Amino acid sequence: MSTIAFIGLGNMGYPMSKNLLKAGYNVIGFDLVAENCNRLVSVGGQTAASIADAVAVADIVISMVPTGKHVRAVYEGPDGVLQHARPGTLLIDSSTIDVENSRAVSQAAEAAGFVMVDAPVSGAVPAAEAGTLVFMVGGTKEAFDRVVPTLTCMGTSLVHVGAAGCGQAMKICNNMMAGMSMVALSEALTLAERLGLDYQTVYDVVTKGSGNCWALQAYCPVPGPVPASPANRDYAAGFSMAMMLKDMLLSQSAAADVSTSTPTAASAAALYQKAVDNGYAAKDFSFIFNLVSGRTGVSNENASD
Ligand code: NAD
Predict the structure, then answer these.
(1) What distance in angstroms lies between residue 31's CA and the mean position of ligand 1's atoms?
(2) Catalytic residue from among 171, 246, 274, 283
């Protein structure tokens, strides 16, 4: 079976690499945090001392790191993938990053003779654990066909959305909607509560009604209705506030690049910014309900002030 170098073993990378192990791949992981490397070893994986060591023996490289800056360092740094991977190694970046950096790394990979796709995911930690992620793949059709067998071990929906960078464009639009939905849901739950409705009733009706959405079903921001949601464990992050702010800001800079006005997303982005500025970066993004409902003492008025 092929060997995969998995770079970035955080909230998402760890469960994704576990599913690759389960499917029979040899997985050599690398993360800057030793504890994240150790947990891969505890489930049968191996780790390397550097990116260079991990990719030197790999047939496939998968990266799952926070931002465009991290992706560029992973691929283009002196210790990085492009310097040390073997010819023919297939490169897959599943991080969520801006289109510009994604295209720049793809071009550098192509210039160095590698085939690369951007393959960001939707579905968050529960889907990463269950192997039911949605992959949005940017790259050539030939590259897409080559990555399908590997991505199938981690996801159930794989869509070839266009050329290099298009996976990121798709992901940015998707997360812009998810970020706005969570704020909309938080406002509706706050209003419902003040009008005398209880959370479970709201959940039971809305999940069958026209207000239904992923934010409610998977990440319900109030304790109770969805046992697995972060609200039931003091908002320990599945998808952190900092990550959602990153994605909302990616949407705003992408919108500016193509002269597109997105006022509702801008307002939601300002609210996530306020949450991060007030010390809630590490909380799950659904903690935004607490700002919206006034529970933190931080005003939600004029969020961009
Ligand atoms: P995370 O912070 O939990 O994990 C990222 C990991 O990358 C960290 O462990 C960090 O140490 C590691 N890292 C950073 N630079 C590195 C380097 N140079 N070499 C090796 N490791 C490095 O983040 P996450 O939640 O797993 O998210 C990762 C990416 O996936 C982000 O781009 C995020 O937007 C995207 N994403 C996250 C979710 C989610 O629900 N958490 C869902 C979809 C997409």
Answers:
(1) 10
(2) 171
User: From the CA of 144, how far away is ligand 1's center (Å)?
Assistant: 23
Secondary structure (DSSP) of 62-94: EE--SSHHHHHHHHHSTTSHHHHSPTT-EEEE-
The tens place of each residue's pLDDT in the chain, 305 residues long, gives 799 999 999 999 999 999 999 999 999 999 999 999 999 999 999 999 999 999 999 999 999 999 999 999 999 999 999 999 999 999 999 999 999 999 999 999 999 999 999 999 998 899 999 999 999 999 999 999 999 999 999 999 999 999 999 999 999 999 999 999 999 999 999 999 999 999 999 999 999 999 999 999 999 999 999 999 999 999 999 999 999 999 999 999 999 999 999 999 999 999 999 999 999 999 999 999 999 999 998 888 755 44
Q: Compute the Cα dihedral for 55, 126, 120, 280 and give only its sign.
A: negative
**What's domain 3-162's architecture?**
3-Layer(aba) Sandwich (3.40)
Residue 53 φ then ψ, to 5°: -65, -40
Compute the distance between CA of residue 28 and CA of residue 50 in angstroms, rounded to an integer. 10
Structure tokens at 90: 């297939």
**Range(s) of the chain covered by CATH 3.40.50.720:** 3-162
Give the amino acid at 261.
S
* CA–centroid distance, residue 181 to ligand 1 (Å): 23
**pTM confidence score:** 0.92
Whether residue 118 has its Cβ less than 6 Å from ligand 1 = no
Has domain 169-293 been given CATH number 3.30.465.10? Answer: no
- Going by alpha carbons, the residue nearest to atom 9 of ligand 1 is 10
